TrEMBL record, chain A:
Main location: membrane
Record keywords: Cytochrome c-type biogenesis, Membrane, Transmembrane, Transmembrane helix
Keyword Transmembrane helix: yes
Cytochrome c assembly protein domain span: 96-307
Name assigned to this protein: Cytochrome c-type biogenesis protein CcsB
Location relative to the cell: Membrane
Molecular function (Gene Ontology), one example: heme binding
NCBIfam families on file: cytochr_II_ccsB
Originating species: Actinoplanes xinjiangensis
Membrane topology: Multi-pass membrane protein
UniProt cross-references to Pfam families, sorted A to Z: Cytochrom_C_asm
Automatic annotation (TrEMBL), chain B:
Membrane topology of this protein: Multi-pass membrane protein
Gene Ontology CC entries for this record: membrane
Keywords: Cytochrome c-type biogenesis, Membrane, Transmembrane, Transmembrane helix
Protein name: Cytochrome c biogenesis protein
Transmembrane segments: 39-56, 90-110, 189-210, 464-483
Keyword RNA-binding set for record: no
Localization (cell): Membrane
Domain ResB-like per the UniProt entry, residue ranges: 36-519
Chief location of this protein within or outside the cell: membrane
GO terms (BP aspect): cytochrome complex assembly
Length: 310, 530
């Protein structure tokens, strides 16, 4: 089972990689893409200057490339689920016992929510490039630096709080991680719209409407924030009290969860303050993403703490 | 998300005629401090200020790591210490930030509470003159009934959807004004007040709480009663007196542990007998994640290890037995420690102690020793227990009055030659039951081992209230993020013997779904569907 899980892991990364290539290819076909055509239609409908329709051949081609990207992405998700489930079966417990499994599960949540967003709003398909890039990088890093052989839980993790605490943090982290994608894209698109023409703003040329990216960013963060609050600031301290006797002890993992929480609270504040620009607010969300990564990798690798899955 | 002003305007407060510069400055500072921008900056500062606490070892988390850091960086550490780098969360600058945030929070939410209360007690305002100017607008169709009846019917429908509704008669017809989503602000305020409560709770918990650590070796003779003198380390809050500690006594009857094949622990459990307030002893147990909850104190299992039992027989035939905890140095429970016998070799004839003849033993205990003679344990359970010891004779230096470690011999005494190593270069190997005869004919017997547990004893009076606060806060947060405040108006005017209906809608918060809700609402009202 453990062996199977490892093989599925390799396949998962390959599938996401292939999806990434297809997303990139679709992107490269530019205007003929789904979004491009929508934009063209709109312009024509709005009585804009007549726009030369692109030749039909690339349209077909890019549509197929785009569809195969989605299909590969979904295959990747299925393999990802398989990797995680087989890992859990091999270990005879929830697959959240160490850093490797933690990243595996958090990215699975991110990928699943992404699939949900993709199905409900096909127009955001262009985000797939960045999503699959992040998935490939995180999973690759998990497999290379954080791999841990299958084993049972150490006694400190053997508690029902484990389920509450870790599952909510994994789900919210996955959504926060995914939320960084529309956030980054919004910043790129906004830069493009305001006349910036260097890289990476050129990526924004063919992206849909900046406002809807920003709203998607907010909705993902607003959904993840209370979950994270529960996982990190209620279930975590409850468990810490039962396990270590104190509900909060400024252990490095606790410190970084606190930092992420404060930064995301600052994001929600910034977004609710009319005098703060939406771009500034979104930058705060990006900083939140960086603090999450720090907690996911940095704290485990650099600092010594009580959290056993370090 | 709400389109709020930077701060609620203090309505109706006319500017003072001749502003006193000091008052004006104060007022401006207060306004600055309680603005959303300042709250943002303070939140950021708090996040940044928390970072060094994860980089440098913290005294509140692990004292030993701080000492190690000092030893490794003798130049840098004292300078860092001056800036509280090892006490970040108790430092004045950290406190300054959160106290400012705390003040800002109060200054921000108290006026909002007042405004919200006012909003809750006022009726939805009348419809604007031109509904078609609102972000959402719909033609509500025609009805054969009278305007008053139509308005009443619309109001009834809106109330059923839990809108706060007000019907007004105007010169040209009737209007229905309705508003919904007050829970958003209620939730938001609940959340911020809960934050305040949690912050206050942390403070009280530190004032009125206490905690202590104790290393507890199995055996009735090794039990203890809860008192500062019997703790290895205790920290009492400023409002706690040593005599306030709850009265209980505890001894460990046994310690169960199981390990996986690779040595990673599977389970631990400490079995104890406890007596509270002088009552009878009762048997109970606790483990990791399952603390022993006594009245006024919680006991958590935070560590464990082995304590060798050693019996020394001196040159006059007197015997002394000691149990000493050896501290684990790795996951396989390779453990280090010392046994000191200061009161031995006392001549019964003169009854005087020769300070040159005190005995000390230092060494390593391996629960499972290997065949290769390596000084590292192979497995944490006692499969092949072996004790490696070196013997020292001389003045242990215990009487100097200087506090020394109980886990190491006094290095100064060894360096000065006052304490002399009398065993060979290689440590002596002892297995349980074996006896070691030293050069002067005295003997040391390795009787066996007992288990020990390190326990944390802790009491925090506000813990439970803080949990309540945090849960309420979370509920408030969820309301605040999921509820949306919105207004709708209907105007019903007479037309062709019946009525004509017109509707307008205004989302008061950034609410993408309002368009759909408004469309559905007006359609239902137009078509008369429920
Ligand atoms: C302890 C520090 C604070 C934390 C952790 C915090 C957290 C939050 C969070 C998470 C939200 C989002 C809820 C939502 O958007 O509905 C929020 C909203 C809000 N906060 Fe704070 N806050 C803090 C301090 C303050 C302070 C000092 C002020 C006043 C200046 C303030 C004013 C507001 C306002 C007006 C909103 C409403 C925004 C809206 O309508 O959506 N907060 N706060």
């Amino acid at each position: 089972m453990a062996e199977l899980s490892n093989q599925l892991m390799a396949l998962t990364v390959l599938a996401y990689l292939a999806a990434m290539v297809c997303y990139a290819a679709e992107y490269a076909f530019g205007r003929s893409s789904h979004i491009g055509r929508a934009a063209t239609r709109e312009l024509v409908g709005a009585g804009g200057p007549p726009i030369k329709q692109p030749a039909p051949a690339p349209v077909e081609k890019s549509r197929w490339v785009g569809r195969s990207a989605v299909v590969l992405n979904l295959i990747g998700l299925a393999l990802h689920l398989g990797t995680t489930v087989s890992r859990g079966i091999a270990a005879e417990r929830m697959p959240w016992g160490n850093m490797y499994e933690y990243i595996l599960s958090a990215t699975l949540v991110g990928a699943a929510v992404w699939a949900g967003v993709l199905i409900r709003k096909p127009a955001v398909r262009h985000l797939g490039l960045l999503v699959s890039l992040i998935l490939v990088v995180l999973l690759g890093a998990a497999a290379l630096v954080a791999y841990t052989p299958v084993g049972p839980l150490v006694p400190a993790l053997n508690s029902y709080w484990f389920i509450f605490h870790v599952s909510t943090i994994i789900i919210s982290s996955g959504i926060f991680l995914l939320g960084a994608v529309p956030a980054a894209m919004f910043l790129i698109k906004d830069g493009w719209d305001s006349g910036k023409r260097g890289f990476p703003y050129t990526l924004g040329r063919r992206v849909g409407d900046a406002g809807s990216l920003e709203r998607l960013t907010f909705r993902l963060h607003a959904f993840a924030f209370p979950l994270f609050t529960f996982g990190a600031l209620i279930a975590g301290p409850l468990w810490a009290e039962a396990s270590w006797g104190r509900y909060w002890g400024w252990d490095p993992k606790e410190v970084w969860a606190f930092i992420s929480w404060i930064v995301y609270a600052a994001y929600l504040h910034a977004r609710a303050t009319p005098s703060v620009k939406r771009t500034t607010a979104t930058w705060i969300a990006i900083i939140g993403f960086v603090t999450m990564l720090m907690n996911l990798f940095g704290v485990n690798l650099f600092f010594e703490g009580l959290h056993s899955y370090a | 998300m709400t389109v709020v002003e930077d701060r609620p305007t203090t309505a109706g407060a006319p500017p003072p005629k001749r502003p006193n510069p000091v008052l004006a400055l104060l007022r401006n500072s207060w306004r600055q401090l309680t603005s959303m921008r300042t709250a943002l900056i303070l939140l950021f500062l708090l996040a940044v200020a928390a970072v060094p606490g994860s980089i440098f070892p913290q005294r509140g988390v692990n004292r030993e790591n701080v000492s190690e850091y000092f030893a490794a960086n003798p130049k840098l550490a004292p300078i860092l210490d001056r800036f509280f780098a090892f006490d970040v969360y108790a430092s004045p600058w950290f406190a300054a930030i959160y106290l400012l945030l705390f003040t800002s929070l109060i200054g921000c939410v108290v006026p909002r509470l007042r405004d919200h209360f006012r909003a809750l007690t006022t009726v939805p305002p009348d419809a604007p003159k031109r509904l078609e100017r609102l972000p959402h607008h719909a033609d509500g169709g025609r009805r054969p009934e009278e305007p008053a009846a139509v308005a009443a019917e619309i109001a009834k429908r809106l109330r059923r959807r839990r809108f706060r509704t007000r019907v007004r008669e105007t010169p040209d017809g009737w209007t229905v004004a309705a508003e919904k989503g007050y829970l958003k602000e209620t939730g938001n305020l609940l959340f911020h007040f809960a934050m305040l409560a949690v912050l206050v709770g942390v403070g009280f918990g530190q004032w009125y709480g206490w905690h202590a650590n104790r290393l507890l070796i199995a055996g009735e003779d090794q039990g203890f009663c809860n008192a500062v003198t019997q703790h290895d380390e205790s920290v009492l809050g400023p409002r706690v007196d040593a005599s306030d500690l709850p009265n209980f006594c505890l001894w460990m009857t046994g310690f169960d542990s199981t390990f996986q094949e690779n040595g990673i622990p599977r389970s631990f459990r400490a079995n104890v007998r406890v007596s509270e307030d002088g009552g009878a002893y009762r048997a109970t147990s606790f483990s990791v994640n399952d603390p022993l909850r006594l009245s006024g104190a919680n006991i958590n299992l935070i560590g464990q290890g082995y304590a060798p039992v050693l019996r020394y027989t001196d040159r006059f035939g007197a015997t002394q037995e000691k149990v000493v905890a050896f501290l684990p140095t790795d996951n396989m429970l390779t453990s280090e420690g010392v046994v000191q016998f200061p009161d031995v070799n006392i001549d019964p004839a003169t009854n005087t102690r020769d300070p040159e003849l005190q005995m000390g033993f230092e060494g390593v205990y391996l629960p499972t020793g290997g065949d290769d003679g390596s000084a590292l344990s192979k497995y944490p359970a006692e499969d092949n227990p072996v004790l490696y010891l070196a013997a020292y004779r001389g003045d242990l230096g215990l009487d100097s009055g200087k506090p020394g470690s109980v886990y190491a011999l006094n290095r100064d005494q060894i360096q000065d030659g006052d304490l002399e190593k009398i065993s060979g270069e290689r440590p002596y190997v002892l297995r349980p039951g074996e006896k070691w005869t030293l050069d002067d004919g005295t003997t040391l017997e390795f009787v066996g081992t007992r288990r020990f547990a390190t326990i944390s004893i802790r009491y925090d009076p506000t813990q439970f209230l803080m949990l309540v606060g945090a849960v309420l806060g979370l509920a408030g947060l969820m309301l605040s993020l999921s509820v949306h405040r919105r207004r709708v108006w209907f105007r019903v005017v007479p037309a062709d013997g019946g009525s004509a209906v017109e509707a307008g809608g205004l989302p008061r918060t950034d609410y993408a779904g309002f368009g759909d809700e408004f469309a559905a609402l007006t359609r239902h009202i137009k078509e008369g569907t429920p």
